[in-house]
Amino acid sequence: MFFERHGGGERAILVHLDGQAPEAREDPQEFQELAASAGAETVAFVSVSRHQPTAKYLIGTGKVDELREQVKTGEADLVIFNHTLTPSQERNLERAFECRVLDRTGLILDIFAQRARTHEGKLQVELAQLEHMSTRLVRGWTHLERQKGGIGLRGPGETQLETDRRLLRVRLRQIKARLEKVRSQREQARRGRKRADIPSVSLVGYTNAGKSTLFNAITESDVYAADQLFATLDPTLRRLELADIGPVVLADTVGFIRHLPHKLVEAFRATLEESASSDLLLHVIDAHEPERMAQIEQVMAVLTEIGAQGLPILEVYNKIDLLEAVEPHIQRGEDGKPQRVWVSARDGSGLELVGQAISELLGEDMFIGTLRLPQALGRLRAQFFAAHAVQSEAHDESGASLLDIRLPRGELNRLVSREGLQPPDFLREHTLQ
């Protein structure tokens, strides 16, 4: 890192602004959950009624004085604002409070930095952090305006601040180059799955909606899941076998949140593209959350930003164990297709309905019919049995097999092509009406 961060502890005062326009308003309860997820010990929660933010402090000078006293009496190391601060506002508030000041974006970045596990995830977080903090590089430096001098330091006449900015630009280029390589590798893997006709399904949803718990329950995995915001950061892919469909790739992705910082969306674009290129999105929704409609809107806004708004979506209403008199069930649209599934990932209620709904939505292009296979195509017959596609078998007078087949048309074409046959011609010659 080419910037200094304050030492300090975790005792924090949380500042929330009331009275803002609806599109800029933040949820105070979610703010407290974010702070707890970051490991902060909340000393005080201060709600400020402010309709018109000020350019210098965001809040009024009277409230700044009041908060300064609370910082001293509460021995707070940190003041966190539930809003975006400009670099100048952040510096002015730090001078006034004489402690570290963090805004909502910085708080979310800190949580992401704690959660990153893979090399790719750490690179993505570092990219977002460096881009966010590059505008705040002057903070905390008192010697940066002087040019370097002295023995061994004479030369370009570059200030320390200019040196740090130059090193920062170099590091940003390095990270972006590595992430571009990751992006191309993901794209290559996706093309491979497309060639193999393996459908992909991505779990998306608001943070803490229960995506990872559902992912673990469906795939029998042990992905980290916890009752906290952004428990999952690194994407996880698992192979899943579904009736009538065969193999499916299921992806668990990072959760969304209200006003997700644009820098994070950009940094995680390689990960989010996993969702944008899926055949089906499972939008996991916390059925017990009073603000679920607002959360649904936020998820759809992020999906629009990454170009995934046009993909088929199955809504999975999770946590019905916290609701009264709600049983697992599938809600269907006017066309009879599944639209919503009501389940509880924690106790496993209704999980089979999720698989059924996925199969129905992905298995629209199914081949259902009877194939007549002469004895010369015995190897193809064996492959149909291995794919569990044969419903029943009979034989005609010539000894040819009459197979009642049910499987995705793409899988049928793949098996037929493997034998050197052309799928359209093969179906015309071997299908019994």
Structure description:
GTPase that associates with the 50S ribosomal subunit and may have a role during protein synthesis or ribosome biogenesis. This is GTPase HflX. It is found in: Cytoplasm. With 433 residues, this protein is α/β, with parallel strands linked by helices. The protein is 40% helix and 21% strand. It has helices spanning 28-37, 61-74, 87-97, 104-115, 119-133, 160-195, 211-219, 262-267, 269-276, 292-305, 351-362, 378-386, 409-418, 423-430, and strands at residues 11-18, 41-49, 78-81, 100-102, 200-205, 236-242, 246-252, 280-286, 313-318, 329-332, 338-342, 366-373, 390-395, 401-408, 431-432. The protein has a seven-stranded mixed sheet with strand order 6-7-5-8-9-11-10, sandwiched between helices. A four-stranded parallel sheet has the order 2-1-3-4, with helices on both faces. It has a four-stranded antiparallel sheet with strand order 13-14-12-15. Strand 6 (236-242) and strand 7 form a beta hairpin. Helix 4 (104-115) runs antiparallel to helix 5 (119-133) and helix 5 (119-133) runs antiparallel to helix 6 (160-195). It is elongated. The termini are far apart. The model is unreliable at 1-9 and 139-155 (pLDDT under 50).
Blueprint (SSEs and pairs):
Elements: E1 11-18, H1 28-37, E2 41-49, H2 61-74, E3 78-81, H3 87-97, E4 100-102, H4 104-115, H5 119-133, H6 160-195, E5 200-205, H7 211-219, E6 236-242, E7 246-252, H8 262-267, H9 269-276, E8 280-286, H10 292-305, E9 313-318, E10 329-332, E11 338-342, H11 351-362, E12 366-373, H12 378-386, E13 390-395, E14 401-408, H13 409-418, H14 423-430, E15 431-432
Parallel strand pairs: 1-2, 1-3, 3-4, 5-7, 5-8, 8-9, 9-11
Antiparallel strand pairs: 6-7, 10-11, 12-14, 12-15, 13-14
Helix pairs in contact: 1-4, 4-5, 5-6, 6-9
